[in-house]
Design a protein that fits this description.
Number of strands: 8
Helix content: 40-55%
Distance between the termini: 43 Å
Largest sheet: 8 strands, parallel, barrel
Order of helices and strands: EHHEHEHEHEHEHEHHEHH
Structural class: alpha/beta
Radius of gyration: 19 Å
Number of helices: 11
Strand content: 5-15%
């Protein structure tokens, strides 16, 4: 029997898109095999929610997700997509060796751009609708997002091509503005609500008040919280962690071990401790990561562990040099 808790775990397609687009050391054909196998493993494990974007691997993630889901019953899974951000600054932002070339990210929140993006995404996915569409990082372009993108998405919803309308961002204040304007049905906040960074607290409280469900993405903070014993070489929000962060993550790992648990188990389950959070979105790169994450997500953890982790976090203070979330 499928563990119903997995209904609250969403497969994030960013890593498979980056892997397929960049190829890495495996080569493009092998990279695509790994990516499709990851989605297939997610289905076998019981995951039924998938989140993608045209900027993930410059369209590769959508194409591969569509390939892996083809032939499966459409009423048994949900797919969320995004509009607005056309490209990432790095084709494979999950690559850790620093060799990936940077580029200027591109955005388009115009009505025509939104319609074109949704049409192209549906073609790549082989679907006739997206269950949710998120405004992707509209942080510095809230005007065009509200004036053009949102009305265009409402038109697409009336046409049956789009379901819920949301915002997906790393900036809590941008999401708060859209929630306050009544422009979105749901919110995805990435990197701002995890064991070591809780700067989305105000956003979550306002979403709870407004009845807007929240998806919390990147519970591993891009890598540092994904291993039982954090150490140098693992990224924290896509950059090298400071000694302060390494020590803090190590102390959290110690608390987990004291209760017979591991840090990644606590990290992946933590976001759901807030009542506003309905799903956790985790980027997964291969079948092994999928199986490991499903197991971590459904492992029972003692309540006493959460109390200790909360107390530890409260005593840590703000990391030196930590930017103020916007």
């Amino acid at each position: 029997m499928q563990d119903t808790r997995l209904d609250r775990l969403c497969f994030g397609c960013g890593p498979i898109g980056g892997l397929a687009a960049a190829g890495g050391d495996t080569g493009p054909e092998r990279a695509e095999e790994i990516a499709v196998a990851a989605v297939e493993a997610a289905w076998e494990c019981g995951l039924r929610s998938f989140d993608t974007a045209p900027s993930y691997g410059d369209g590769a993630a959508e194409r591969l997700l569509g390939t892996a889901l083809r032939g499966l019953p459409r009423d048994r899974f949900t797919v969320s997509g995004k509009v607005g951000r056309r490209t990432m600054a790095i084709a494979d932002p999950y690559r850790l060796d620093g060799a990936a070339a940077r580029r200027e990210p591109r955005f388009d929140f115009t009505a025509a751009g939104v319609r074109r993006t949704v049409e192209t995404s549906l073609e790549r996915l082989g679907l006739d609708r997206l269950d949710t569409v998120f405004l992707h990082d509209p942080d510095d372009l809230l005007g065009p997002a509200l004036d053009e993108a949102v009305p265009a998405l409402h038109e697409l919803r009336r046409a049956g091509a789009v379901g819920a309308i949301g915002v997906g961002t790393t900036r809590p204040r941008a999401a708060e503005a859209l929630v306050a304007a009544g422009a979105v049905d749901t919110v995805m906040i990435a990197g701002e609500w995890n064991l070591m960074r809780r700067s989305a607290a105000t956003l979550l409280a306002r979403c709870q008040e407004a009845g807007v469900p929240v998806l919390a993405a990147a519970p591993y903070a891009s890598g540092l919280l994904a291993v039982a014993r954090p150490g140098p070489g693992l990224p924290y929000l896509y950059r090298a962690p400071s000694p302060w962060l390494l020590e803090a993550a190590g102390r959290m790992a110690d608390r987990c071990r004291r209760h017979g648990a591991e840090l990644p188990q606590a990290a992946i389950q933590f976001p759901l401790r807030h009542p506003a959070v309905t799903q956790v979105v985790v980027g997964m790169r291969d079948a092994g990561e999928v199986v490991a994450n499903a197991a971590r997500f459904t492992t029972d953890l003692p309540e006493a562990l959460w109390a200790e982790l909360d107390t530890l976090w409260a005593g840590l203070g703000t990391p030196p040099g930590e930017p103020v979330p916007t």
